[in-house]
Amino acid sequence: MQSESPIRLSAQQACVRFGRLDALGPIDLSVRAGECVVLLGPSGCGKSTLLAALAGLQAVASGKVQADATGGSAIPGVVFQEPNLMNWATAEDNVALPLALSGVEKDARLSRAQTALKRVGLANFSSAYPRTLSGGMRMRVALARALVNDPSSLLLDEPFAAIDELGRRALDDLVLEAKRDHHLAVLFVTHSVDEAVYLADRILVLSPRPGRIMAEIAVPNVPRDPAFLTSPAFADAAAAARRVLSAQLVAA
Fold first, then answer.
1. Are 189 and 157 contacting, i.e. CB atoms less than 8 angstroms apart?
2. CB 142 within 8 A of CB 159
3. Residue 21's beta-bridge partner residues?
4. Do the beta carbons of residue 220 and residue 35 sit within 8 Å?
């Protein structure tokens, strides 16, 4: 059961400030192994800032953020809004970059990169350069790079926003597959209510800046398949999220 799984990502009374501007918090959250938590909220409310803090890329002004691990890397895998690939490097070399920076021997890191590319459906594109790949394929490379170091947690900041609907659903399915197969803790940022419901075990709706958790919406534990998209459970969770977001607009 998820309630008995270890906590992999956590924030305790975490606040982020930029100069005199309160950007986030105080905020408390936890994400357990095998769980996907999705953040929804208006632009500028601190969703990406929270991910950056958990990734170790943004200092908190007060409180605490932490990524823990058992059997995997404590450094979360991160996928940003852009794939951020090196255009002069092959897909394989892009995926292997975190291993190279960690000093992993070349043959070992390339083997692991090939395995990661296979996981995201790009086994036949290891020698391709980013300019020859579609937008969806480049995001698959970015996802493979985030997974190559066997992280215990995965942070995703609106990674599929620019992808067409069919491509986005396929990428969402890859995230769910990675969560299931490797018991990852996943924290995902999106502006799409439908994507949030499809991915999430729990949805956290943040307030306008400084972002605080205004509501938590539990999504039923049912298979994520095409039937779920037209189910009453999907409609109910999506309606609950939209009610909270609409209330924020009225209050603003």
1. yes
2. yes
3. 18
4. no
Task: Please check whether residue 190 is in contact with residue 161, taking contact to mean a CB–CB distance below 8 angstroms.
Answer: yes
Residue with tokens 């100069």: 19
Sign of CA dihedral 178, 5, 63, 151: negative
- Tokens 């823990």 belong to 68
Q: In what order do the strands lie in the sheet with 7-18?
A: 21-32, 7-18, 62-67
Please count the other Cβ atoms lying within 10 Å of the Cβ belonging to residue 132.
12
19-23 CB contacts, 8 Å cutoff, 24+ apart: 21/209, 22/209, 22/210, 23/49, 23/209, 23/210, 23/211
Cα distance between residue 196 and residue 201, in whole Å: 9
Q: Report residue 55 as tokens.
A: 């990734």
Print burial letters for 15-33: b (CB count within 10 Å at least 16), e (below 16): bbeeeeebbbbbbebebbb
CB 210 within 8 A of CB 25: yes
For the ranges 82-86, 161-165, 194-198, which has the lowest average pLDDT?
Answer: 161-165
68 pLDDT more than 90 = no
Token readout for 78 is 């991160």
Q: What is the β-pairing status of strands 213-218 and 202-206?
A: antiparallel
Q: Residue 249: which pLDDT band, with cuts at 50, 70 and 90?
A: low
**pLDDT recorded at residue 247:** 84
Task: Provide the 3-class DSSP secondary structure of residue 162.
Answer: coil
153 vs 173: CA distance, rounded Å: 17
Half-sphere exposure in the Cβ direction for 92 (13 Å, CA): 15
Confidence (pTM) = 0.94
Q: Which residues of 69-84 are buried (b: 16+ CB within 10 A; e: fewer)?
A: beebbebbbbbbeebe
Q: State both tokens at 212.
A: 């605080």
Q: Which fold would CATH assign to domain 76-191?
A: Rossmann fold (3.40.50)
